[in-house]
């Protein structure tokens, strides 16, 4: 392969099927995402606030947003876009990540973002649990069986192997099967219990991850948690409005993004707007500049809003492995 060929401006297009069987061990994904937060805290990376736009003619749950970021460790610029028409169909949800190699000043890859999100999101939940769960945490509950939460329990066990009880709540048969199969693959020596009484299960769990989307259950309240409990909200739709007011300590991946995507969580008891008071941001916690909690009896509410700085390293790793395997199509848009 000639040097001029490698330096020609081109994108490697990687489809969902190109990436579907590319594997990354949980420990590698977690390390890459945690390093991304650390680099951001050290001001080596950049991540402006997520840009969202409502679509007037579709239902209120439509998705249209974009994120721009720079990974200072990899020297990669990333653009993420997500779009979903306002309905429940996963077939009409489209998300992409485009990477540019800033070291060479060349485009690198354009890829489907589904697999990236399904890995970096549980990695973020695991990192939050690692830094914010109380010191004697022994149980974890997953609420939801969709793509955002499928790998969460194995990832959390990777960082907190002392956890003894793992359980989940779900209502969709296909999702329940996928949850059980995925857990069995990563944790063959452990038992995963399905619970029916969600509120009772939350009251006894040390760590709860809410990723239930348009939830088919009563919306989760922080007050249901026992003292010392940690509630991680991946999808705020499954969590009661005003959840921040019930928490003793609030953590966010990014305060500004929480104001964009999770503002209803700060509402008052009558639905009046409230200020999203955040005690600590995750990048600062990872860097040792802020505490994940200040006492073992605090009820912690953690809001996980995806940051493109975590998509970039996971997407970069997947793209490199896919390209090495001969996947994708090389497109020269600029010729």
Task: Considering the chains and any ligands shown, give keywords for the structure.
alpha/beta; ornithine cyclodeaminase, domain 1; Rossmann fold; 2 domains; 7-stranded mixed beta sheet; 15 strands; 30% helix
- The ordered H/E elements are HEHHEEEEEHEHEHEHEEEHEHEHE
User: DSSP strand (E) fraction?
Assistant: 15-25%
Number of domains: 2
What's the overall average pLDDT, rounded?
90
- Number of helical runs? 10
Which class best fits the helix and strand makeup? alpha/beta
CATH topology of the largest domain: Rossmann fold
Provide a concise account of the structure shown:
This protein is of the alpha/beta class and 335 residues long.
How would you explain this protein's 3D organization?
- The protein has 335 residues and is an alpha/beta fold.
- The protein has 2 domains: 3-116 and 309-331, ornithine cyclodeaminase, domain 1 (2-Layer Sandwich); 129-306, 3-Layer(aba) Sandwich (Rossmann fold), CATH 3.40.50.720.
- Helix content is 30%, strand content 22%.
- It has 10 helices and 15 strands.
- It has helices at residues 3-6, 16-19, 26-41, 114-132, 152-159, 173-186, 198-204, 255-261, 282-286, 308-324; strands spanning 11-14, 51-52, 63-71, 76-84, 93-101, 106-112, 139-143, 165-169, 192-194, 207-210, 230-233, 249-252, 280-281, 300-303, 329-331.
- The chain has an 8-stranded parallel β-sheet with strand order 9-8-7-10-11-14-12-13, with helices on both faces. Strands 2-3-4-5-6-1-15 form a 7-stranded mixed β-sheet.
- Helix 3 packs across helix 4, helix 3 (26-41) packs across helix 10 and helix 4 (114-132) crosses helix 10.
- It is globular, with a radius of gyration of 20 Å.
- The two termini are 19 Å apart.
- The model has no long low-confidence stretch (mean pLDDT 90).
């Amino acid at each position: 392969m000639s040097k001029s060929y490698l330096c020609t401006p081109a994108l490697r297009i990687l489809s969902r099927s190109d990436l579907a069987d590319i594997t990354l061990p949980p420990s590698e994904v977690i390390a890459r995402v945690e390093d991304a937060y650390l680099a951001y805290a050290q001001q080596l990376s950049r991540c402006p606030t997520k840009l969202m736009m409502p679509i007037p003619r579709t239902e209120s749950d439509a998705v249209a947003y974009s994120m721009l970021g720079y990974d200072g460790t990899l020297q990669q610029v990333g653009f993420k876009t997500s779009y979903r028409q306002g309905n429940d169909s996963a077939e009409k949800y489209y998300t992409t990540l485009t990477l540019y190699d800033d070291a060479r000043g060349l485009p690198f890859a354009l890829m489907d973002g589904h697999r990236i999100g399904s890995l970096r999101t549980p990695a973020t939940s695991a990192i939050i649990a690692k830094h914010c769960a109380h010191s004697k945490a022994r149980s974890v509950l997953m609420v939801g069986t969709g793509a955002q939460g499928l790998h969460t329990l194995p990832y959390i066990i990777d960082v907190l192997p002392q956890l003894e009880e793992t359980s989940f709540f779900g209502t969709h048969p296909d999702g329940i099967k996928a949850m059980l199969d995925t857990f069995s693959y990563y944790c063959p020596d452990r038992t995963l219990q399905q619970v029916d009484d969600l509120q009772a299960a939350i009251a006894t769990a040390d760590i709860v991850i809410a990723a239930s989307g348009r939830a088919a259950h009563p919306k989760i309240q922080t007050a249901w948690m026992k003292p010392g409990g940690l509630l991680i909200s991946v999808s705020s739709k499954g969590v009661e409005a005003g959840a921040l007011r019930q928490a003793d300590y609030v953590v966010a991946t990014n305060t500004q993004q929480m104001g964009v995507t999770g503002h209803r969580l700060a509402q008052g008891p009558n639905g009046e707007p409230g200020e999203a008071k955040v005690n600590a941001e995750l990048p600062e916690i990872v860097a040792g500049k802020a505490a994940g909690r200040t006492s073992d009896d605090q009820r912690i509410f953690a809001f996980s809003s995806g940051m493109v700085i975590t998509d970039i390293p996971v997407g970069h790793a997947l793209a490199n492995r896919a390209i090495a395997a001969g996947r994708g199509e090389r497109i020269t848009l600029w010729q």
